Amino acid sequence: MSLVLDGSTAAAAQELRSRHGLLRTIRTKVGAAVLTLAFVLVFNFFLFRVLPGDPAKNLTRNRAVPPEQIAEMRRGFGLDQPLWRQFLAYLKSTATGDLGISWQYHTEVSRLIADRFWPTLLLVGLSTLLAAAIGVWLGIRSAWKRGSRFDRISDLLTNALYAVPTFWLGLVLLIAFGGLFPTGNMITHGLDPLSAEGVLDVAWHLVLPVLAMTITYLAQYSMVMRSSLLDEMGADYLTTARAKGLRDDLVRRRHAVPNALLPTMTLIFLNIGFIISGAVTVERIFSWPGLGQLSYDALKTPDFPVLQGTFLVFSASVIVANLLSDVLLTVFDPRVRDS
């Protein structure tokens, strides 16, 4: 009886230590994310101040404008203040959620970002779902049929696609299929995006930019999934499952794939943040009215409030995606949690 009690007590103590370790790890990850975001907040201010050119002059498009008017514009933008005062004003406004007024569009930066966020989310979200689904399927089938013709062809294609820059693929698609699909904007002018015709029109405009991003990123998911599943295929628990009489497809679906998915899921979450910031080139090529296009337009002025706001959103998306991937990996993988 005492042995049973000792065993249950030891198991409870182990579970309690594991739970405390999980909470401690999550607190550490959250603290690191907060510190990183604080560094980005400071770096964000000084990064765009080193850009060449005078924003006030650039906004006049090099027209003959009196120096007094240029000075008045600089005063309105706050550029006549010392750098440390500009920095303190930036910290105060950002802490209250005020990202400032765009010098180019003369509207609130937070409203501009909110309007442009949904087109980027639609583009990135759809691309990520398609790339993850196709890439994971390719990786599973290639690993399970290692050495087959399908595996060799898939391995060749994924390695080739992994080396292709997204912007280059976008240009190729634009040249090759520009006559079949729309090459700019999100919807035909005059259509209601909430109507049936408008939804179909948006989907038609999505084809080329989504294809460019999906093809590029599915190669990563396929390669990681294939490598992870190949590592799992030699594990003892799969041999045990086969010895119990389970069919090969059940062994793969119930045992091998769930364990091999962890690295791929981590990569998907990591890529979500980078894809949002990396959509700048695709949005520029296809004139997609998202955050990437907004950043490109602001860079030409340069429009400091818009650049600071979009850079903060891009950085926060990467930090949050990293945090989510770390937390999920800690929760679902006992090896990480126990370490």
N-to-C terminal Cα separation, in Å?
32 Å
Principal-axes shape call: globular
Query: Can you tell me the residue ranges where pLDDT is under 50 for at least 5 consecutive residues?
Result: none
Structural class: mainly alpha
Report the CATH superfamily of the largest domain.
MetI-like
Summed up, the helix count is: 13
CATH architecture of the largest domain: Orthogonal Bundle
For the record, the CATH class of the largest domain is Mainly Alpha
What fraction strand?
under 5%
Based on DSSP secondary structure assignment, what is the total number of beta strands? 0
Do you know the CATH topology of the largest domain? MetI-like fold
Q: What oligomeric assembly is this protein in?
A: single chain
Helical content stands at: over 70%
H/E element sequence: HHHHHHHHHHHHH
Structure, explained:
The protein contains 13 helices and no strands. With 339 residues, it is mainly alpha-helical. The protein has 2 domains: 18-51 and 112-338, MetI-like fold (Orthogonal Bundle), CATH 1.10.3720; 53-98, no CATH class. It is globular and about 85 Å long.
Task: Provide keyphrases for this structure.
339 residues, mainly alpha, MetI-like fold, 2 domains
